[in-house]
C-alpha cells in the first residue's frame, strides 16, 4: 500500500540541525518511508497525493517515561519531594487500580489524552495489578498508538494495599507474558520480524520497591523472554541515600540493577539519572542504557537538574519523558521547552556545559527516544511513518517566519489544538 503526503516537512536526522523540505512529498509504503523528496518522481504521477497545504509535518512525539495511572494526580502534591509524594499521593492512587472498572474509565481517558497530546509512542508504567495492566495493554492495542507497557513489580516498602508478595509479582508477570506471546515473541525469535506496536517491558518500580529475590527473578525473566526493562535511577538525593542503606555491599545505585541482571544492553531505560556518578554514567554508556530525561518532573518534585550535556557528550542514548504524574502535562512540546530551560539554568553554574538547542531537544523527543522502538522518530528512508500534521494558523507571528521558526513557535506557544492529524506506522489514528 502506497500513500503520498505533501506538505512542509521538518525533522532532525542529526541532533544539531533541522532538516527542512518545504512543499515536499513523502512516499510511504506499508507504513515505512520510501522517499522524502522535493520533486515527486514520474512513477508516482498516478498515485493520489494528500495535500496538507501550508501545514507543518513533523515526526510523532515519543514519551520515553510515563505512568498511565498517575494522569489523575497531576498538578497536586508538588510541595513534597519524591519519597513523601510517593507515599502520600502516588501509592494511594495506584491502589485504586485493584478495581478493573476504575482502571477502565481512567485508562480510556489517559489514552484519549495521550493521543490528543500528539504522543505516538510511549514507554508506559501501569500499576502492579495484573488485570488492570492487561486491560491497559488491550486498550493501547485498540488505540493504534505504539507502546512498551509493563506491570509494575513492587514487593517491599509500599502500603499494605498496594504491595505484592515476591511470588505473586513473579507469577503475575509470567502470566501476562504467557497469556499473550505477541507482547514479546517478535524479539524472542530473531530481531528481524517486525514487532507489533504494543510490546511488553519489564518494570521493576525502583530498587527501594523490589527485594533482592524479586530483582534476581526479574533478571532471569528478562533473559528467558528477551525483554526490555524500564525503571528509575538516581532521581533524588534521599532516594540515592536509601538505596545505599538497602544495599551497602554494592558500590552504586546503577550497579544494584547491573548486579541483578536488570541492565539489558541497548534495551533498558532508566528514568531521571540526576545524581549518577561518573562511573555510573560509564556503566550506562557501556551498556547503551537509555536515559529518560524528565525535566518537568524534576522541577515539580524539586529533584534537581540532570546534567544532560554531560550525557550527550559521552554518547549515552537519551530521550525525553513526561514522567506524568511527576510531570503535569503529556504534551512533549512542553517537555522540550523544560529540557531547554533546565539546561540553561544548569549552564549558569556549569559554563562548560552549553545549553541545549531547540533542535537538540526536539531530536530527543523524536529520534532520540524513538530509536528505542527501532527506526522511529525521523523521516529518513526505512523509518516508520509516525507523524503529526501541525496547523499553526492560529499562532500569529510577525513578518515571514521560516518553517523552523514556525516549529519553534508551536513548541513554545502551541498546544494539542494545533495538531490536525496523527499517523503511526503509516496509518492515520483518529478517535
Ligand atoms: N520512583 C519510584 N516510583 C516512582 C514514580 O512513580 N514516579 C517517580 N517520579 N519516581 C519514582
Ligand atoms: Fe517515573
TrEMBL record:
GO terms for molecular function: guanine deaminase activity; zinc ion binding. Residues 57-427 form the Amidohydrolase-related domain. One of its GO terms (biological process) is guanine metabolic process. Keywords: Hydrolase, Metal-binding, Zinc. GO terms for cellular component: cytosol. Its cofactor is Zn(2+). It holds the Pfam family Amidohydro_1. InterPro entries: Amidohydro-rel (IPR006680), Metal-dep_hydrolase_composite (IPR011059), Metal_Hydrolase (IPR032466), Metallo-dep_hydrolases (IPR051607). PANTHER family: GUANINE DEAMINASE. This is Guanine deaminase. The lineage of its organism: Bacteria, Bacillati, Bacillota, Clostridia, Lachnospirales.
